[in-house]
Amino acid sequence: MEKAEGAFLTIGELAGELGLPQHILRYWETRFVQLRPLQRSGNRRYYRPTDVALARRIHQLLNVEGFTVKGAQKVLVDGNGSAPATVTTPAPEPLNQADLITRLLTIRSALAEAIGD
């Protein structure tokens, strides 16, 4: 099942998408200061859409265009790469409590229907 556009990805999902082992992504986090996924309990990583775009760009620079880590770092810092380092997504409109509850109830109903509850 494919995740919705803008959904956070786990390290396994992102590694699978890029065709890389997970330890490579963890290594990139030590070398590229811009790559900072959310870390939750148990150090589980969750890559936001901007993190995913950056990881794709790093992958492109290192594994397709043949840059060294140092060269890729320079491209990302200088911003002179052939593609943007990150993709900005507009912040969602804040919901008031009533709208949020309505939205959550809609999601709950859809989930219940999906699992036959």
Please state roughly what percent of the residues sit in beta strands, choosing from under 5%, 5-15%, 15-25%, 25-35%, 35-45% or over 45%. Answer: 5-15%
Number of separate strands: 3
* Large-scale geometry: elongated
Structural class: mainly alpha
Query: Average pLDDT value?
Result: 83
Biggest sheet, open or closed, and with what strands and sense?
Answer: 3 strands, antiparallel
- Read across the widest sheet, the strand sequence of neighbours is 1-3-2
Number of helices: 5
User: How far is the N terminus from the C terminus?
Assistant: 20 Å
**What share of the residues lie within helices?**
40-55%
Give the H and E element order. Answer: EHHEEHHH
As residue ranges, the low-confidence spans are: 81-87
What Rg do the Cα atoms give?
Answer: 18 Å
Keywords:
about 55% helix, about 120 residues, mainly alpha, single chain, about 10% strand, 3 strands, three-stranded antiparallel β-sheet
Architecture overview:
The chain is mainly alpha-helical and 117 residues long. Helix content is 53%, strand content 8%. Strands 1-3-2 form a three-stranded antiparallel sheet.
Q: What's the quick description here?
A:
It is built from five helices and three strands; from the N terminus they run βααββααα. The chain is mostly helical.
